[in-house]
């Protein structure tokens, strides 16, 4: 059996700092770190959550053949579903989830086809989202937040990629999404 390690003392901590501090300082002299620091903030590329810009042409090329045609058909059907009016006295995860799924499907179509009508549908769906989960009395609401949050975030990302959402609109929707959970 190995003897126990000594308890940290101020002297031991100071020794550790003297040994490891030069290595920590060396990270700042790393040429890659310097290049990233000097480049400043990097502007985001849209979309970047569920797809990347280079995937658009792949989707267009594949959507008319099996099995992708079935997926595209499901997206079209989901996009055309009727929006649900969320309850006002309780945070309605079912209605918000349905509307977020419709927003995501519509925004994906808007991105792939540059479809203004689908973009407007996605915007209408996103506009139904509210951040009032404090109103909910569901004890398991936390497991039901994934659909409204993830689908809404994807929709905003895709709308920005398609050019059908302004930065102000995206910021407003993202503020709601960020305050849901």
């Amino acid at each position: 059996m190995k003897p126990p390690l000594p308890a940290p003392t101020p002297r031991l901590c100071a020794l550790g700092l003297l040994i490891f501090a030069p290595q920590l300082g060396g990270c700042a002299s790393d040429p890659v770190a310097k290049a990233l620091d000097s480049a400043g903030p990097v502007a985001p590329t849209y979309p970047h959550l569920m797809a990347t810009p280079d995937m658009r042409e792949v989707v267009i090329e594949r959507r008319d053949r099996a099995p992708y045609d079935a997926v595209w058909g499901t997206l079209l059907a989901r996009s055309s579903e009727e929006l649900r009016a969320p309850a006002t006295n309780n945070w309605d995860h079912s209605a918000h989830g349905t509307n977020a799924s419709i927003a995501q499907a519509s925004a994906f179509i808007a991105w792939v086809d540059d479809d203004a009508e689908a973009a407007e549908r996605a915007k209408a769906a996103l506009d139904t989202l509210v951040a009032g989960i404090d109103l909910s009395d569901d004890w398991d609401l936390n497991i039901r937040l994934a659909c409204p949050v993830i689908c809404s975030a994807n929709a905003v990302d895709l709308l920005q990629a398609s050019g059908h959402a302004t930065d102000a609109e995206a910021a407003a929707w993202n503020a709601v999404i960020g305050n849901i959970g």
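The chain is about 60% helix and 0% strand. The helical segments are 10-26, 31-39, 55-62, 68-79, 93-113, 116-126, 146-162, 167-180.
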